[in-house]
Amino acid sequence: MTASLPRIFSGVQPTGNLHLGNYLGALRNWVKLQHDHECLFCVVDMHAITVRQEPAELHRATLEVAAAMVACGIDAEKHIVFNQSAVPGHAQLAWIFNCVARIGWLNRMTQFKEKAGKDRENASVGLYAYPNLMAADVLLYKATRVPVGEDQKQHLELANDIAQKFNHDFGRSVFPMIEPLILGPAARVMSLRDGTKKMSKSDASDQSRINLTDDADAIALKVRRAKTDPEPLPSEEAGLDGRPEARNLVGIYAALTDMHHAAVLAEHGGKPFSAFKAALTDLLVASLSPIAAEMRRLVGDPGAVEAILRRGAERARALAAPVLAEVEETVGFVRV
Ligand code: TRP
Description:
This protein has 2 domains: about 5-185 and about 300-330, HUPs (Rossmann fold), CATH 3.40.50; about 205-295, Tyrosyl-Transfer RNA Synthetase. The protein is built from 13 helices and 5 strands. The chain has helices at about 20-35, 45-50, 55-70, 90-100, 105, 110-115, 125-140, 155-170, 215-225, 245-255, 260-270, 275-300, 300-330, and strands at about 5-10, 40-45, 80-85, 145-150, 180. The chain has a 3-stranded parallel sheet with strand order 1-2-3. Strand 1 (about 5-10), helix 1 (about 20-35) and strand 2 form a beta-alpha-beta unit. Helix 9 runs antiparallel to helix 12 (about 275-300) and helix 10 (about 245-255) packs across helix 11 (about 260-270). The longest helix has 30 residues, at about 300-330. The chain is globular and about 70 Å long. The two termini are about 30 Å apart. The model has no long low-confidence stretch (mean pLDDT about 95). Bound molecules: tryptophan.
């Protein structure tokens, strides 16, 4: 790796199935960023257990997410692909950050409020402290660029608050500021059953999402059944207003072809949805089937995926060691 390139850190939780939204919203962008950055891509298994996980499923999903990263085109030779729990520095730095972050700061986190719901008393302490661990993920490597969706922006602002307070309290500029790379609405993929809801791995209906492991028949069926309205496709972008399902399908087509919505509509506007859906199916199958095939190959060879993670964790530990030493020395810990 070339040390002079800006360093990126990002993470995905190993929960549920990876879908088209994860691909267009995250993985595909990471693949593009790897050309001019030094990257660490992490399967955040410690974040996953902030809510209850079935151990066998967590194990399976961790290997599957790592396989997906590689299948989507992340170069695990050049960059670092690893699982969070394999590098103890994440937990070590997170503890120190637990002592830097203020309770009042965490109380403002909207994701905690949403995830904890009405029964806050019964949420895990880990779910509450989740943003501190996320700050540790990035700052353990002094990474300065973090590609995330809009929903994670508040967590990164908190990470910057932690970095600033740490630097200020100890009078040393140990941590750099993080620049969030917020991935635009082009990457926002909605449910196939409800164009106002995000495509989600936790949606009860599998028909609502296209999984990265779906085969051509499954993709065709899901697109055919995707919710639409009775009008044909509009020829201009303004015609998508108030039609969230139409907008979503056009958006997926646009993202996969790197076209603007207007250009997609210029080509397909006026056609009935059935015709547009057929074109979209062909495009999805062409884009996703090589990924699905590579994922199936890797999932069928867990030893190979474990070898990638082992090598990634070794390299991550080596990058983390001097930062952790600097932090411990700054805090006043005796290092024996
Ligand atoms: N919280 C992120 C999510 O749910 C995942 C994540 C954990 C992450 N640690 C990170 C993302 C560090 C970016 C950087 O999407």
